[in-house]
Structures are given as structure tokens and as C-alpha cells.
Amino acid sequence: MLENISLILLERVSLILVITYITFQSYFIKNIFGKTLVAKNRLVLGIIGGFLGILGTVFGIRYNGAIVNYRDIGVIFAGMLGGIPAGLIAALISSIFRLFLGGITVIPCFLGTITAGIISGFISHLYGRKHFTFVRTLLYTVLIEIVHLTYVLVMVKPYSLAFDITFKILFPMVITNSLGVSFLNYMIKNIEEQLEQTAENTINSIFVIMEKSLSSIEEGFNETNAKLIAETILNNTNFDAVAITDKNKILTHVGIGSDHHVTGMNIQTNATKKVIESGHGLKVVGKKGISCSAYNCPLYSGIIIPLTDLNNELIGTLKLYYSKKGEIKNSDIIFGKKLAQTLSLIISLARVNESLKLATEEKLRELMSNLSPHFLFNTLNAIKYISKKEPDKVNYFIDNISELLRYTLYENKKFVSLKDEIKFTTNYLELMKLRYKDKLSYEITVNVENTIKIPPFILQPLVENSIKHGMKEDELIIKVNVESIDNYVKISVEDNGKGFKSSNKKGKGLELIQKRLKSIYGEDYNFSIKNGIFGGTTVEIKIKSSNIKVGEAV
């Protein structure tokens, strides 16, 4: 039987590889990890690796009190993808299971498996995921297996038995584990490449849709603009029909089925009503799933995704349909979710724009004019630029914009917490870094309680002023500092930029800030602008501590 061990193990490893490949192709796993499987969820990676390790033990072959196995495949796999934490989790799961099986090699196998998780995780931590080429993975696994079997040779007694076990199972375990890990790594890289391609195609389509939709944003979100957006989606995707609704009626339906799914009609399908009631997306298949009352309706399958505003309140749905010739794929679901997030942002832009027009606090809103659709359009174009090279950053920057808008539109209190104002300013700076890249950096230092209350929209205009007037050829560094000095809370924004010329007057934004401070604090504040000796500008605001409130915003 020993002559056939390698072949038997390789056959069983092939089955494990197929199971693993199918698992990582599933929408559930892709939804957990995103477009890259590396270190996104170390716990899940560790559990999957531990489960593969258990299978490698269970399907191993017993020989002379030992088990010829491929347990280390799952452990090394988890360590490569998730670093030391995932490698250790997988090692503990599979090695503890091995303890319950007993045998003369139980302790050295326990230690060998733990070592495999640590070594593979350490290499991943040291060199990164891309370091694991097919050949390197093969060599590392060979070395790990030799270390593993060295434990057996040293710890098992008598030595003659240890020698027999080690050198009889050395080749089968080394060849099985090394080939298994190498092929598994190769398969996972292929899956990642597919996911990256899907993400890139998704992002490119979304930005085409976004660019065409934003052009009419100032007119608000209505049936006309909904139709424009739906037609843009239809023309830039493979869907056969696209519909957008509010909470009660169809705003537009383009493509197949538009003869009886008419603009202005009340929502007819139970599936759409269910999404509106639950706030969760839904995949529907077949006429029963679509539940259209028209007998000859060509819609066969679709995705219905909720659209929400900046407060996550539902405002309608996006519906993407196929005819019988189409089929809902995992990539369609991913695309639909990202597209719905983008459309929600566009709708919020329209509402922000309308709110800015109707705002009663004109001076306060004038400070926020830089967050108009024009500014956001330029920012979104910058996001589009990085989407091809760094697509994983796109969601991060879209979230930045969403947070920025939420604060701008809904923060109408007279005072806000310093923590919220700092977060708002940080989001703005992150978007500016996207635009100016290495030419801009910032530091924020807070040495007071972040629950103190200050007027909203104080910090961001100061930072904007530094960028607007201080940007130069080399790096612009902005330092924001909040501290308590004597009886004052001092807020300062310092930069190493070009500085103000003595003949320059204060900008309109700075004048508005000063007027607001005066209306709130009277004479109990100080506002100053200073030029540095070697360039740069420092703007300081000092507010008497006795006027600083702590507690709920008002």
C-alpha cells in the first residue's frame, strides 16, 4: 500500500481542491471578502483553513501509528492569505482535532501544524501576498513539511520507529502538501483576478452612468432625470430593462416591458413592495417572482435594490431586469449594489443642492458652497481616475463623500461636538488628498475633550483656505491643532504654503467665520491670521473656556 500512498493522497487532495474552488466562487464568500481574498476576514479564513485541515486529517492514511495526511494544506493556505492570525486559527482548529485522534505522532503533529501556521503567516506578513508565486509556494511548503516531519523523527520513541515513519511517509506528505498548496494558491489567484476584472468593469460602467447623470443634478430628481439615468444604465450594461421607482410609483421604466410598465403608474409587483417594506434587496426569478399582471410580460429575472438617502431612509428602488435569455449572475448582484449606492449619492446631491438654494441661514450655507455639485463632480472624476489602478479605494472615497454630504445637509444645530467637526474636516482633507496626491499631507492634534461644543463649519473653511492660497510646487503640510491655553480653547490651522501678502484682504469665507463667531460669542473670542517668517500661514481662533459647552448639541 505504501507504494500507492502518494497517488491515493493526490486523488483525495484533488477533491479538496474542487470543494475549495467551489466554496470561494460562491456569492456568500465573495460577499464576505470582496474583490480580494487577502486578509479581509482573518477569522473566516482561519475557519476555512481549519476545516480543510480537518478534512486532510480525516482522509489521511494510517501507517504504523501515524497518519499520512495533507492537513497542512489548509493551515498554510490560511497563513498565506490571512497572515499569522488566520494561520494560527487554522492551525489550532486542525491540530486540536488531531489531538483527539491520538497515536504515537500526536504531539509532534500538533507542534508541526502550529509551526506551519506560524511560518506561512510570518512569510505573508513579511513579504505580502504577491510574494507567493507557484514555485515559491512549492519550496516553502516543502521546507515546512520537512520541519513537520523532523518533529516526528526527534520526538517519537523508539528511534527506529520514528525513522521508519519519517522516511516512509516523507515523500508522500511533502509531494502531496506542496502540490496541494501550490495549486490551491494558483486557483485562488485566478479567482481574485476574475473578481478584480468584475470590479473594474463595474466601476467603469458606474462612472459612465454617473457622469451623464450628474449633468442634470441641479434640476432635482424627477421623472425626467430618472429616465435619463435609466437609459444610461440600459445603454452601458447587458440588462434588458431598467426601472426606477419612488416609494409609491414608477418614475421610469426603459427597455422590454415598457409598454405596460408605465411612468406614473403605482407600483404593481409584490417583489418591489417587499423591498420597500423591508429595505433589503431581492433577487427574483421567473414570472412568479416578477409577479407582473400582464400575461405576455417579457421580464423573467431581476434584481431589486433599495435606494436610500444620506440618513439611510428609503426613497425608492432600482430594478435591473433580464428576459428569459439572460440570467442573474453574482457579478450582476455586485454591480447592482454598487450602482444603487452611487445613485443614492446622486439623489442626495440633488437634495443637497435644493437645500442649499432654500437654506435660511444664507451666510452659513455660503461657507459650504465649495461642496456644490461642481466640487463633487470634480472629486468623482478624480475617483474615476484611480479606479483602474486602485479600485479597492473607490468605496472608501464614496463613503467619504456620503459622510461629507450628510454633515452638510443635516447638521443644522447651533453647536456640534468637536469630534464631529474634526471628522467632517478629515473627510474633506481625504478627498483633497485624492486630488492633490503626494502634494498634500495633514496632521490633526486634539488635546481637549472631543465632546466640547463649537459652531459647525468652522474648521473646514480654514483648511480649505490653506489649500486654496497655500498650494505650491512641493508638499503642502497642514497642521490642525486644538488645545486649551490659560482660559481659552485655541483652534489653529497652520500650513507651510505661500502665505498671505500684506496687501491681501481676508477671503469671504474667513470674514463669514469671524462674523459668525462675533454673533455667538460677542467679544469673548479672538481671531487672527499670521504669516510665518519662512512662509506659511497660521489662522487662530481663541474662545473663552467659560463659553465652551459640553453635552448635547443644540
From TrEMBL:
Residue ranges of every copy of the Histidine kinase/HSP90-like ATPase domain listed in the record: 458-544
Subcellular localization, as worded in the UniProt entry: Cell membrane
Molecular function via GO: ATP binding; phosphorelay sensor kinase activity
Species assigned in the record: Thermosipho africanus (strain TCF52B)
Chain ranges of the Signal transduction histidine kinase 5TM receptor LytS transmembrane region domain: 28-190
Entry's Gene Ontology cellular component terms: plasma membrane
Domain Signal transduction histidine kinase internal region intervals: 363-440
InterPro entries: Bact_2-comp_sensor_kinase, HATPase_C_sf, HATPase_dom, Sig_transdc_His_kin_internal, Sig_transdc_His_kinase_LytS_TM
Main location: membrane
GO biological process: cell wall organization
Protein name, entry field: Regulator of cell autolysis
Cross-referenced Pfam families: 5TM-5TMR_LYT, HATPase_c, His_kinase
Keywords attached to this entry: ATP-binding, Cell membrane, Kinase, Membrane, Nucleotide-binding, Transferase, Transmembrane, Transmembrane helix, Two-component regulatory system
Topological category with respect to the lipid bilayer: Multi-pass membrane protein
PANTHER family the record matches: SENSOR HISTIDINE KINASE YPDA (PTHR34220)
Taxonomic superkingdom: Bacteria
Transmembrane segments annotated in the record for this chain: 7-29, 41-61, 73-93, 99-126, 138-157
Keyword presence, Cell membrane: yes
